[in-house]
Amino acid sequence: MAFGTRLRSVGALPDGGQLLTFELPRPLSVLPGQWFDLECAGQTRLVAALDYSPTESWLSLALPRDQRLGSTPLSPGTECVLDGPHGEGLDADGAMQNTIIVADPLGLPGLLFLARRGPAAALALVSLEQTSWLRLRPSRYMLPQMPAGVIAGLGPLEDAGIPSRASHAEHPGCHDGPLSDLLDAWLAGRPAEDRWQDHAVVIGETAFVHRIRDLLRGRIGHYRGLTIPGQARK
């Protein structure tokens, strides 16, 4: 359902994009992995929820530089229209301690949202591709299953107690090949009896979710996918 809103605050992302926080005129139930259609400045973007406060009635969305709306930066007080939330979303539970989260750039906001809610997942693997709006740093978690030199972790996940690794062709410390290599290394390093007790959640575009689920089939006990449509839907 669509509703009018206005920008409460605007922050800067490392890549020059914007972190947008909106006032909510009515209570919503928003889960990690859900998304909104955002209409502002005469344009529309499909954006996954990044954070949400039901008590303070605000919703945060991240717009990377290549998805920014209009020719000038948005500012607090700008009136917009939000349509959503859409999608199934994910409720965190006690099983998260045995859960690996796998995400692409479109699924990254849902992963960060999930990390803020807790409890902490066992591991997060992220395909960043050309995404640069999130800062990376050397992980404090030793993961012997990972290929040599793959030591970069995602700061917000590490702070939430979630070991993380990423694939990116250019960032130092990331795996420069496909994310499937990291996933395969993790699976290969787990005894079969442990893998059948493990869970996996895959968040991202439909093709990504289907590809990763194919890799998990027959190798892990429980897995599910949360698909988020790409911008082509608009």
Describe this structure in words.
This protein has helices at 108-117, 155-159, 179-188, 192-195, 206-216, and strands spanning 2-12, 18-23, 35-40, 43-53, 58-63, 79-86, 99-103, 123-127, 136-138, 152-154, 164-167, 199-204, 222-227. The chain has a six-stranded antiparallel β-barrel. It has a five-stranded parallel β-sheet with strand order 11-8-7-12-13, sandwiched between helices. Strands 9-10 form a two-stranded antiparallel sheet. The longest helix has 11 residues, at 206-216. The two termini are 16 Å apart. The model has no long low-confidence stretch (mean pLDDT 89). Strand 4 and strand 5 form a beta hairpin. It is of the alpha/beta class and 234 residues long. The protein has five helices and 13 strands.
Order of strands across the widest beta sheet? Answer: 1-2-5-4-3-6
Radius of gyration: 18 Å
- The low-pLDDT segments are none
What is the helix tally? 5
Question: What class would the helix/strand composition place it in?
Answer: alpha/beta
**Helix share bin:** 10-25%
Order of helices and strands: EEEEEEEHEEEHEHHEHE
What share of the residues does DSSP label as strand, in percent? 25-35%
Overall pLDDT level: 89
What oligomeric state do the depicted chains represent?
single chain
Number of strands: 13
Anisotropy-based shape: globular
**End-to-end distance:** 16 Å
Biggest sheet descriptor = 6 strands, antiparallel, barrel
